[in-house]
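Input chain follows. Return structure tokens only.
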Amino acid sequence: MFRRDRGSRRADNDGVEMNGGDDHVTPPHQSNEKQSRLPLHRPEHHQKSKGLNPEGESNRRGIHPLHFIRICFRSSCTLSMIVNLLWPVVPAAIAVHFAYQYREERKWHLIIFILNYIAMVPSANLIGFAGQDLARKLPKAGGVLLETSLGSVTEIILFVTLVAQRQNLPVVRGAILGAILANLLLCLGLCFIAGGFQREEQVFHEVISEVGSGLLLVAGFGLVIPAAFASVYSNTGGDSVDPRQGTLLNPEFQHTIIRLSRATAIILIIAFVIFVYFQTTSHEGLYDEVLGADEQRDKDRHKDLAKMKLTLTECIVALVIGIACTAMIAVFLVTEIPQIIGEGRETPYVSEAFMGLILIPVVEKAAEHITAIDEAWDNQANFALTHVLGASVQTALLNTPIAVFVGWGMTNYDLDLLFPTFESVVLILAIIVVGNFLRDGKSNYLEGVLCVCVYVIIAVCAFYYPSPEQQGAAPHGSEGEH
């Protein structure tokens, strides 16, 4: 909505001129195009803190309680502000857990689960908003990486809590793959829809799409190779693995799979470190250029710049509050999962696969999805794609190895990467589908609708996916029937 000629592309109406990568500040009265260019930061926000990006300056220091509450409630966009209306559910969920956790009636376990499930959304949203405000104070590439990492805190907390509870290994594995599927299909699809709703198509840079999709393909193969290895070994060396449940029948072979999973986790985390170096050091200028140009296409940028910002201290306080609430709620949520999936009961509320692949990933990724969809709506396709692919890459290359390492450090509770055949196939197909959509560097609402449709199909399959008890009761040859 703002036109800029090619020769003036490197200047803004606040007099910030880019010369050889250095910011030279000139007085506002020397700018001749004040009415036609988007500013990099608010005019009254003179840089007061060394090392901070002027765009992230709050023009305040320390913590001011009223400003802190007001800024956190208004959040980054309207949808995020609506989510903050759920904050009263947080104390209610905590209170109900302590009051009724030992009741034998099954309905109370369902109520506790639902309340904590809802309470997870505003808690994670606070982490996402505080991370976003903190990221504004850093260079573009490093800020996006920090924001994505803080957005994954909720996921790491849930993974670690699930492993630490020493139960529901299939749910842990399902949550790992489900988080990637929720990003690639649900969130990316909604971003394509939001971006294509107001325009014919959106264009994104090839460095964002190619690097992200390439890493995902490698990570996807790395995650499913232990399952493929176990399946082939089972066919050639005896009945060592049950591919329907992803469980090992031979204890000696189980140790082999665990060692293979640990080796894979180490390799994946090395790949993540190299990716971080690529994005923040060796190719930082390229990412800064791409994302900087994306900011100039933000139709609501003038509104964002006019908003009050959190101080550095307030960002840290908000992160501490959000992480503390999220950790507490995650423990309460995970504690109720056995009751919800019906362990030891004939009628579960939902299947084990649906809990792992759909329910947990949707709630843990809610804040990140809101941020990415808002960016796509504002025509910041590269930012949205960076958040979606970055979050997926971080789940595969960092969060999954962390869960494996946590299980490695616990006695007699090793987490392996032996995913069931259904989940492994779904993951690889999803990565291939998204890679094809990203190949041309353009997106539209049709591609978004197709991604969401694929995700809904997976959700329906997961809902009807039989529990281990039902699979054990079924004849071995009935897998391919119906």
